[in-house]
Amino acid sequence: MTERDYEHSRPLDVHRWSDHPEVNAFVNQIYEEYIHQSGTNTNIRKKHLKVVLLDLYVAWSDDPNLNIAVHMSMNAYSDGTVSSKGKSRYNALHIKVSTIDVVHLLHITGLIGLKEGWQDPDGKSYLTRIWAAEPLIQMFMDAAFGYFDVGYPENKATVILRDENKRNIEYEDTAETRRMHDLLLRYNRLLERSFIDIPSLDQPRIELGDKENRRRNNKPVFVNITHHGKFVRRIFNNGTFDDGGRFYGGWWQRIDGSYRKAIRMNNLPTVEIDYSSLHVILAYTEVGIDYWKMTDDYPYELPVRGVSNPDHCRAITKLLFLLGFNASDEKALFKAFRNELDYTAYPYSFPDDVLSELLNGIKDRHPKISRLICSGAGLRLMNIDAQMCKYVIEKFVERDTPILTVHDSFIVPFGTERQLDRVMKEAFEHVTYKTKVKAKYNSNLTEAQLYAGRAIDRDWYLDRLSVVTKPEMAKGYRLRMERHNQEFNQAADVGY
User: Fold this and answer.
1) Number of domains comprising the chain
2) Which of 69, 121, 316, 337 is the most buried (most CB within 10 A)?
3) 335-369: per-residue pLDDT in tens?
4) Do the domain assignments include residue 238?
5) What's the CA gap between 97 and 73, in Å, rounded?
C-alpha cells in the first residue's frame, strides 16, 4: 500500500452543502448507525456531519489521494480562527466546535483515516489530516446522489474584506456590496453550468513546475481541474474596499499560460486576451497621462546588467517594476523580487547593486510615476483593474457567455474574442476615463484568422476547422464532458 502524502491536502470547506433528498437520507443513515448519541443536539450534529461527509466525498471524487486539513483544537473555533465567531458572514452554515466531535466519531468507527497534527524538524506545524477510509468510500460508491448534487449555500460569502494581516474581517453590507455579491452569484452559476476542462487530460490534474514545487519541499504539487474548483470570489485588502478587490478562486488561475491555452469551454477552444502593461498604464492614468497617446514604446524595454537576452531583460524589468508598486521600500522590493523570480527560466544572480541600478533605470525611464514605486500603490492599482474586470464579467454574464479571468487577462470561447476585445476597451475607458489601451492575444486561433485563411488555403482552413469542431480528446475528458452535459442538458458536440 502506497504511503499517503499528508502534505497533499486542502483545508476543510465549511460551506460544502446540499439539500438533495438523497444526500439527507445518506447523512441520516450514517448518523443513526455510527454517530447518534443521546443527550446531544441532533440537528447541530447532523449539520456538522453533513458538511464533513460532503467535503470528504468531493475530495475523494476529485482526487482519491487528497487529504483534508481540519482544526482539532477548541481554541481554533472559540477564537475565530475557523468560524470567525460562528455567526460571521464567512461561516454561513455556522460550523463550530462540533466539527471536532464528528471527526473523532468518524475515525473511531473506521469511516475515515486520520493523521494527528504534527511538527516537522524545522518546527513547522501541520493541522490534522483526514480522508475517506474504505468503508466510507464504498458508501460513496453506492450512494444515490451524485457529484453535481453537492454545492454551496447561496449565502456563502463572495465579497471578502481582509485586514493588513490578511485576516477576514466583518463589515456592514451596503448597496454596492450587495451588487457585488449578486454579480458573483450569477457569475458562479454561469461557471457551474459551463464545462471547463483541458481535453488532453485523462486524469484531471496538472503538476506544477519547479518554481512551485520548491514551495513544498520539492514534492510534486498538483492543481486539480474540477467542477468544484470554479467558485470565484472578490478579496479586498487593508480593511477597505478601495484596496484590492480582484477576482480569485478558479483553478485556471493556478496554471501557466501553456496549459491555459489548452482550455476548452463547452468543448470550444478558447482565446486569451490581456491588457498590455496594465499596471504601468494605470499608474500613468493616476497622474493624468494617457500613456499610449504619449508613446508607442513598451515600458519594460530596459537593459539589465549581466543579461544579454532581450526577452529575459524585458521579463526581469517587468517583474521588478510591478513588484515595485506593491513594496514599501527597496529592501522589501528586492526580497520580493528574489522570492518571485523563476531562476530556472532566468538563471542569473541579482545582488543589491544590480537591482538598485535597474530600479534607478526604471525611475529614469518613467519619471512621471517614479513616486509610486515603493509606495505601496499596488493594491490601489489592483482595485482599478478589478473594477475593469467587474465591468467585463458583468457584460459576459448578461450575455450568458462563460468567461474566465486571470486578473488583467480574460479567456473566452472561440468566436467571442472580438466581443471581448471591444468590452475590455470599453471597461478601460469606463473606469479610467482614458481612451487608449492595447490588448494582447495569445497564440490560439481566432475566428477572424480562421475565416481569413479559408480564402487563402482551403486545406489549412479545413485542418484548423477540425481542431475547433473535433478535437483530440482523452478518454477521461470525454467522460467528464458527458457527465457534465448529462447533468446540465447541454449538447456534447460543437457544430459549425
Assistant:
1) 1
2) 316
3) 999 999 999 899 999 999 999 999 999 999 999 99
4) no
5) 8
